[in-house]
Design brief:
The chain is an alpha+beta fold and 413 residues long. It has helices at residues 95-176, 179-194, 198-224, 252-272, 286-298, 302-315, 320-332, 336-349, 358-374, 378-391, 396-412; strands at 3-4, 9-12, 16-21, 34-37, 41-46, 49-54, 65-69, 72-78. The strands form 2 sheets. It has a 4-stranded mixed beta sheet, with helices on one face. A 4-stranded antiparallel beta sheet has the order 2-3-8-7, with no helix packed on it. The chain is elongated and about 140 Å long. Residues 197-206 have a biased composition (Low complexity). InterPro entries: CS_dom (IPR007052), CS_DYX1C1 (IPR037894), Dynein_assembly_factor_4 (IPR052004), HSP20-like_chaperone (IPR008978), TPR-like_helical_dom_sf (IPR011990), TPR_rpt (IPR019734).
């Protein structure tokens, strides 16, 4: 049960109210307490301490602030109307009016959080659009560069082919001429280049002519051969197997059954997420969302934690821990009926009762019993605490709380 903080101090100016909430009996508020500030409602939740105030007049929550210093909470509240207050707390506020103010404050906080999430989603889509445009520009530039390289290589290849055709055409024309004249002309050109005269040719006789003819045919043959092709590399890519084991060592039938089950599960999840918008792969994983909600709960951001659990439940509604954790958030936010519903749903899923889920069932009974007690339904709350004790009979905390509830029932008759 929470320990209510009744001591506080306040002072005001025509437009600002300053409030100080110290710890109980000089004890400091440790950790990071949950501080909630609405138009006519203040709350400080630092287990086991709880402070709650319904204000005399509305304040501007957007310009108001709170800070934690030396174990105490200091509020700076900006008035909506610059006028002195007769009192800090509102007078003659009944339970129904208190509940209405709480629900209105939580509803407005939910709407504000939803607006922030929508704005964040819009910014994310804009960033994705900008990133996509930049990627398209880079791909277009790379494609143009590759096309230019291809065009350059094509031109080089065309020039080489044209040169090779010209050489073949020259050789063909030379072969069409008289072979004797061709040999004589080549021999004369050779003698001029080598520095020998006509006398050397006469002394050599027919043998020299035949030798020069062989040299010319070898040179002609060498000129007719095109140059070597340019070196290059070819990349081959193979479609990888889904399973890394070799085919001879794998169990093909079991692998195909597993792949079919995975495809069916992805199909079901994609069908359920069709209306959820553009989500990342992480945001489609209920376990990742549960861990994210747990981190937000640990930091005191209960509204955001509820949002993470809600999305995880929409993806997979058969995980008891999601309902159990969301029930804890609703308890912190005073959404008591929703806490009862989530705890009951978790108990329905935690079947059959086995030792592995005993701790979760005990938590579900305790959280539902706590919600009943907050609604002053102490008999129903005691039933849940007794059920939790049957599961964990050695838990002293549950036993002490159950005894307190019995005393409250006896005192109220």
């Amino acid at each position: 049960m929470p320990v209510w903080l009744r001591d506080y101090s306040w002072r005001q100016t025509p437009s600002v109210v300053y409030v100080t909430v110290p710890g109980q009996d000089g004890r400091r508020l440790l950790g990071r307490p949950d501080i909630f500030c609405a138009e006519q409602y203040l709350k400080v939740n630092a287990p086991p301490f709880l402070f709650e105030a319904f204000l005399w007049a509305p304040i501007d929550e957007a310009r108001s602030a709170a800070r934690l210093e030396d174990g105490s909470v200091f509020f700076t509240l900006q008035k909506k109307e610059a006028a002195p207050w007769d009192s800090f707390l509102a007078e003659k506020v009944g339970k129904e009016e208190m509940q209405r103010i709480r629900e209105d404050a939580v509803l407005r906080a939910h709407e504000k959080a939803k607006e922030e999430m929508d704005a964040k989603a819009i910014r994310k889509r804009e960033h994705s659009k900008c990133a996509l445009e930049a990627t398209l520009k880079l791909e277009e530039a790379e494609r143009k560069r590759v096309e230019d390289l291809k065009e350059e290589e094509r031109k080089k290849a065309t020039e080489e082919i044209e040169k090779w055709k010209e050489q073949n055409e020259k050789q063909r024309k030379l072969q069409e001429r008289d072979p004797v004249d061709l040999i004589r002309k080549k021999q004369e050109d050779y003698e001029i280049r080598s520095g020998s005269g006509r006398a050397a040719q006469t002394a050599s006789g027919t043998r020299g002519a035949g030798s020069s003819g062989n040299m010319f045919s070898e040179k002609l043959k060498e000129e007719s051969v095109p140059g070597p092709r340019r070196a290059g590399s070819i990349q081959l890519k193979f479609t990888p197997r889904v399973f890394p084991t070799a085919l001879r060592e794998s169990r093909v039938q079991e692998e195909e059954e597993w792949l079919q089950k995975q495809a069916e599960a992805r199909r079901v999840i994609s069908t359920d997420l069709a209306e959820l918008g553009d989500l990342s792969e992480e945001e489609k994983n209920p376990d990742w969302l549960k861990d994210k909600g747990n981190k937000m709960f640990a930091t005191g951001n209960f509204l955001a934690a509820v949002g993470a659990y809600n999305l995880a439940i929409r993806i997979n509604s058969k995980i008891p821990a999601l309902y159990l954790n969301r029930a804890a958030c609703h308890l912190r936010l005073k959404n008591l009926h929703k806490a009862i519903e989530d705890s009951s749903k978790a108990l329905d899923l935690l079947t059959p009762p086995v030792p592995d889920n005993a701790n979760a069932r005990a938590k579900a009974h305790v959280r539902r019993g706590t919600a009943f007690c907050e609604l002053e339904l102490y008999a129903e709350g005691l039933q849940d605490y007794v059920a939790a004790l049957r599961i964990e009979p050695t838990n002293k905390s549950i036993s002490e709380d159950a005894e307190k509830i019995r005393r409250i029932i006896q005192e109220t008759g």
